[in-house]
């Protein structure tokens, strides 16, 4: 059994020396342990450097009491007021360090304005402590009794995008990351899990206090607290040249622990796949998952501790999705919610990468096919509405899939690595990702980002093809029409042409509403496919709509043979509007089949068949074409 059980308190003693670090963190000269990229962050008067949050949870109801000590830096010449978000809570008092001097504040709605006794100069820092209590009504902070959860009393936070303010006063924007220490006091018997590393556990009468600390900056929506009577499944990943040993800790109810061991068995392999494909070691102190119920979503990628819906622990794609967010969302975080696809598209495409790791190209294609949901994609990916609509998940995953095809696997991996490393522990906009992509690719990708990220719609393609014999070769003509209501897309695409003995692949770029490509082939083509390997996001290629079919000039049609009468050869031409099983048979006047010229599945297109009748006597014959539900018969005369 790969999971090791241990008694929680015993383990916590092993880490207790770190408690000293929790009490007094070494700070860099600027007061921040990480030089955050604030150059691109939206203008704001102050930058939060560190949260020291202390929570006491009753675990009998939704009452919580807390204090949040906030260290911040002025980003203006004279900062007189710090404005934070604090929703549906009572602010008891606010003091200024180091003398615990009380400061004035106003609290209206979600806005908490704190007046500083004296202006704070540019880049100077100060520390305030806010004392508060609240009874959050299942927003931001959720409490359920044992009867309500069906197992144990449970309390957890769920903050994305703007609900951290319901359980802690904070600067509640994804672009203001800060380091954090979180202590949670709960009645003994409960286990309180949070982000970062557990540095100390303290027993105080009938209560237990858990001290968590993260060495890495975290956005407020990625902070969390999860409390219940949990069992802990512990494991670890051995160190690599890029990182230390990685502790893994999952929090589940005892009743779920055996199944969870089975469901979570691939987590270590998933981490290894992520590290390999992204080229970046797992970025944080630990990884874990905490199961909760009831839960309104599938999972939430809190930094170092995913919150998982207890009903979905079996879902490997969900587990992979939330894990991938540790890199894409947590390590590299969208600057504002307009760029949410930089979190969700990457996490969703990582589900595809996991399927590819398990089942190769076929599994990758199969997964990507399931993510084509154009009816749900009514807005551009950028600044999507609704914010968490499928466009920032499925369509954004397709954008990465297409970018990978455009760049090639080697450059795509280089892109992931360079983008991840450059913006590690910072925030990003779409333009940042595009810039790195163009840098790696060596050419502008403006057309790509414009049509896929900032515009709506996906291509709807219809195509037909015809062939004609030249002296020693075949001419293949392919006509493609983009029928979507949106303007034409630029679509670099592979065209696969099959003949009796080989398959040829031609790369062409579709640029306009109608495109025609002509190829000279050494062998007679038997079937033609656009993008057979499914690298381009598009709707069905099947010609099923009669109006659209007629636009392209394809219908079910059997032409009179030529020449007629004939001796001994003649040519039969026909046209198919859609892919179908097709037969072309020759009958004599008594209705006996004398020859079958075609018996195969054929694509939509125009066909030319040569009929050699030198083995047949003179007379009247009939040729019948059947394709799908269509059938037609014509008469011809052999005159020897
Ligand atoms: Zn996600």
Automatic annotation (TrEMBL):
Single Gene Ontology MF annotation: peptide binding
Domain Peptidase M1 membrane alanine aminopeptidase: start-end pairs: 267-452
**Which InterPro entries does this one have?**
Aminopeptidase_N-like_N, Aminopeptidase_N-like_N_sf, Peptidase_M1, Peptidase_M1_aminopeptidases, Peptidase_M1_dom, Peptidase_M4/M1_CTD_sf, Secre_tail
Q: Keyword annotations for this protein?
A: Aminopeptidase, Hydrolase, Metal-binding, Metalloprotease, Protease, Zinc
Q: Which Gene3D superfamilies match?
A: 2.60.40.4070, Neutral Protease Domain 2 (1.10.390.10), tricorn interacting facor f3 domain (2.60.40.1730)
Q: Please give the cofactor(s) recorded in the UniProt entry for this protein.
A: Zn(2+)
Domain Secretion system C-terminal sorting intervals: 562-636
Which terms under GO biological process does the entry name? peptide catabolic process; proteolysis
In this chain the Aminopeptidase N-like N-terminal domain maps to 50-222
Question: What EC number(s) has UniProt assigned to this enzyme?
Answer: 3.4.11.2
Catalysed conversion reaction: Release of an N-terminal amino acid, Xaa-|-Yaa- from a peptide, amide or arylamide. Xaa is preferably Ala, but may be most amino acids including Pro (slow action). When a terminal hydrophobic residue is followed by a prolyl residue, the two may be released as an intact Xaa-Pro dipeptide
GO cellular component labels: cytoplasm; extracellular space; membrane
Give the family per the record: Belongs to the peptidase M1 family.
Full protein name: Aminopeptidase N
């Amino acid at each position: 059994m790969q999971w090791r059980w241990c008694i929680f308190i015993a383990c916590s003693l092993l880490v207790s020396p770190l408690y000293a670090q929790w009490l007094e963190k070494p700070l860099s000269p600027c007061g921040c342990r990480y030089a955050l990229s604030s150059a691109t962050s939206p203008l704001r008067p102050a930058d939060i450097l560190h949260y020291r949050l202390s929570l006491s949870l009753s675990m009998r109801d939704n009452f919580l009491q807390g204090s949040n000590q906030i260290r911040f830096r002025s980003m203006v010449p004279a900062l007189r007021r710090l404005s934070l978000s604090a929703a549906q809570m009572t602010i008891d008092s606010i003091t200024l360090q180091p003398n615990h001097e009380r400061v004035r504040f106003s609290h209206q709605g979600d806005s908490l304005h704190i007046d500083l006794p004296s202006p704070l100069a540019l880049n100077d820092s100060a520390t305030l402590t806010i004392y508060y209590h609240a009874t959050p009504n299942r927003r931001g902070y959720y409490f359920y009794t044992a009867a309500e959860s069906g197992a144990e009393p449970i309390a957890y936070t769920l903050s994305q995008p703007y609900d951290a303010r319901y359980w802690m006063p904070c600067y509640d924007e994804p672009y203001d990351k800060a380091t954090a220490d979180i202590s949670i006091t709960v009645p003994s018997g409960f286990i309180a899990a949070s982000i970062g590393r557990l540095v100390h556990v303290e027993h105080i009468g009938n209560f237990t206090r858990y001290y968590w600390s993260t060495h890495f900056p975290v956005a407020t929506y990625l902070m969390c607290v999860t409390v219940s009577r949990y069992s802990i499944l512990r494991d670890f990943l051995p160190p690599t040249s890029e990182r230390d040993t990685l502790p893994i800790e999952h929090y589940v109810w005892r009743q779920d622990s055996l199944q969870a061991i089975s469901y979570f068995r691939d987590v270590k392999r998933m981490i290894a796949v992520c590290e390999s494909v992204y080229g970046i070691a797992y970025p944080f102190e630990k990884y874990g998952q905490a199961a909760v119920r009831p839960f309104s979503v599938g999972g939430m990628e809190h930094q170092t501790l995913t919150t998982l819906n207890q009903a979905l622990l079996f879902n490997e794609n969900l587990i992979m999705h939330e894990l991938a967010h540790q890199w894409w969302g947590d390590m590299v975080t969208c600057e504002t919610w307009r760029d949410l696809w930089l979190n969700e598209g990457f996490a969703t495409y990582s589900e595809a990468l996991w399927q590819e790791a398990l089942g190769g190209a076929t599994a990758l294609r199969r997964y990507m096919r399931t993510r084509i949901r154009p009816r749900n994609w009514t807005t551009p990916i950028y600044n999507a509405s609704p914010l968490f609509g499928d466009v920032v998940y499925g369509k954004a995953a397709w954008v990465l899939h297409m970018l990978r095809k455009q760049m090639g696997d080697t450059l795509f991996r280089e892109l992931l690595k360079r983008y991840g490393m450059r913006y590690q522990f910072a925030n990003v906009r779409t333009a940042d990702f595009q810039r790195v992509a163009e840098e790696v690719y060596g050419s502008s990708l403006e057309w790509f980002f414009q049509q896929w990220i900032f515009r709506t719609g996906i291509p709807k393609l219809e195509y037909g093809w015809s062939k004609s014999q030249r002296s020693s070769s075949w001419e293949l003509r392919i006509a493609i029409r983009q029928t979507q209501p949106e303007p034409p897309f630029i679509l670099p695409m592979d065209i696969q042409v099959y003949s009796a003995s080989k398959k040829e692949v031609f790369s062409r770029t579709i640029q306009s509403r109608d495109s025609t490509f002509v190829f000279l082939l050494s062998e007679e083509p038997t079937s033609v496919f656009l993008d057979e390997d499914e690298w381009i996001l598009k709707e069905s290629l099947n010609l099923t709509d009669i109006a659209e079919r007629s636009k392209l000039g394809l219908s079910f049609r059997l032409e009179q043979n030529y020449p007629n009468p004939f001796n001994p050869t003649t040519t039969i031409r026909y046209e198919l509007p859609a892919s179908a099983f097709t037969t072309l048979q020759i009958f004599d006047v008594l209705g006996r089949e004398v020859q079958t010229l075609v018996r195969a599945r054929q694509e939509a297109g125009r066909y030319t068949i040569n009929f050699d009748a030198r083995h047949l006597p003179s007379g009247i014959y009939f040729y019948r074409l059947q394709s799908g539900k269509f059938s037609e018969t014509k008469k011809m005369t052999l005159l020897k």
